[in-house]
TrEMBL record:
Protein's UniProt keywords contain Nucleotide-binding: yes
Keywords linked to the UniProt accession: ATP-binding, Nucleotide-binding, Oxidoreductase, Stress response
Name of the protein: Heat shock 70 kDa protein, mitochondrial, putative
GO molecular function: 2-alkenal reductase [NAD(P)H] activity; ATP binding; ATP-dependent protein folding chaperone
EC code: 1.3.1.74
InterPro entries attached to this UniProt entry: ATPase_NBD, Heat_shock_70_CS, Hsp_70_fam
Organism: Entamoeba dispar (strain ATCC PRA-260 / SAW760)
Pfam family of the protein (one): HSP70
Amino acid sequence: MFISQPTRSTCIGIDLGTTNSCMCVFDKTTPRILENAEGKRTTPSCVSFTPTGILVGEAAKRMEALHPTTTISGIKRMIGCQYKSDKQERRPYKIVKGRNGEGWIHINGKTYSPTEISSMILKKLKKDAEAKLGKRVDEAVITCPAYFNDAQRQATKDAGTLAGLKVKRIINEPTAAALAYGIDTRKENEGKNIAVYDLGGGTFDISILNINKGIFQVKATNGDTMLGGEDFDKAICQYISKEFERKYKRNLQGNKKGISRIKEVAEKVKCELSSSEESIISLPYLDGQDSLEITINRRKIEELCKKICKRTEYPCIQCMKDAKLRKKDISDVVLVGGMTRMPLIQN
């Protein structure tokens, strides 16, 4: 008689990011990144509501330029935060005051909390992880910015629960990064103070860690939950919009599709100029009738983003003060997050 054995479940680690999310599993002695259904190591933190259903990840990201009012990105910046009417204009989709005082998304006559939108992203990660591993995934450890408050951490945990995951722990992103790099296992790091500078798509964190017998002690943390790659993108978007206005003597206000296309190309140009010196921006029929083509170089991007980059300085200084340390007391700096690939940040 054949008796089927219950499928084993496993626990995964999830970096729930503003721009992209990532999942991994602990494989014997080291963490291993899991590819999603599309074969990629990161999944866009994007959800699109279409007439035929809800798209998540890469498929949703492709809808953003054409359907900006029904495609949600950057939801991490809203999770666990109270509604502020002045923020509504910054997003192409409609934001309303939710039942719990949070900003909720209003689409096609329905409202969704940031927790619900985040859970949709987590559901995809869970499904993709199960397909990759060939077994159930019921548990997860999810990262969040070190500077997230209790409400934001609880909302992140609730998103995991809604996605069908038992959230074993919410761990600070800088601590997770230090563990992933194996900083705690290196003997030469014993007794040292290490700063983890984490600049992602929507949030910035700085943490100073001290290592004692392989155990991390977080001496201080600081950051800005409203500072990240999106702000750099906006600066580039404004420049492109002004170039269009200068050339054609009219602006793109109210043209949500045009603005969404600029946002898409701004992000690409920012990434390109991290490794190249020059890039061409080409936007055919941007407002339905006129096209824009301009050449932009790294020097110009750095000029546009210099003030935003400088905003990371105060949290770093404050973090050192809280830790009662000076610059010379920091032995190493670990750069984490996609934005740290930008030469302006590294320099």
